[in-house]
Fold:
Amino acid sequence: MPDIKQLQELTTQTRRDILRMVHAVNSGHPGGSLGCTEFLVSLYNQIMSRKEGFDMDGIGEDLFFLSNGHISPVFYSVLARCGYFPVAELATFRKLNTRLQGHPTTHEGLPGIRMASGSLGQGMSVSIGAAQAKKLNKDPHLVYALLGDGELQEGQNWEAIMYASAKKVDNLIATIDLNGKQIDGTTDEVLYMGSIKAKFEAFDWDVIEIAEGNNLEAIIKGMGEAKSKSGKGKPVCVLLHTEMGNGVDYMMYSHAWHGKAPNDEQLAKALEQNPETLGDY
Structure:
């Protein structure tokens, strides 16, 4: 497994990938992608148990489902840098006939993609189904999911959250990206949800919080705690406190970069803050 220094280098390179991909087509979602970079880098390189290659059955390995599919730039970069497909293919992001659609799709046959997530609010349900399939197959591996906090404003999530605890889906670890922002403003301004922690606990989930959601060591420690709680009769929720646009000073602390690409000058400034470490595509 890579050490913290190597993970940090991969994180920095992934941020460069995100910025260059979105800039090249003047389209995409850099804010949430940058905010979840440390998490996905840690998940795929340190936390999940993965097999070589890719198959949709995923038997004998941990599975991951991205529910907030608009942060596809970070997902594609991490998958490519982990060897699921050539890094050079990142240059085709959002272009005609690409496998790297703006929101991930399964019919493109891109290795690493297990669900189409253009429509928000469905990843929890899919993840629960996969987790129950693992139980039926007597596969002891875990299912991970990532959801946005604004995404929790959609009702299907809560039906699924209720179901998971009622059916004791205790091989599921669902992480909520708590950055407090969505496309139209803060989550409190758009639709105040109160305490997410209290809600999950009321639905009988085990809940842990990672206060430093952009700190690699904190993420690895927190997800280790989440794994230790699995298999004990309850699904596990991880509340990951992140900063939208993390790593690029002018993108942070605002919802403005949820779905906006940087221009040439802005890209240059962002790349200066994230120097090349593993080679650009």
Summary: The chain has a mean pLDDT of 97. The longest strand covers residues 172-178. Strands lie at 63-66, 143-148, 172-178, 181-182, 185-186, 206-210, 236-241.
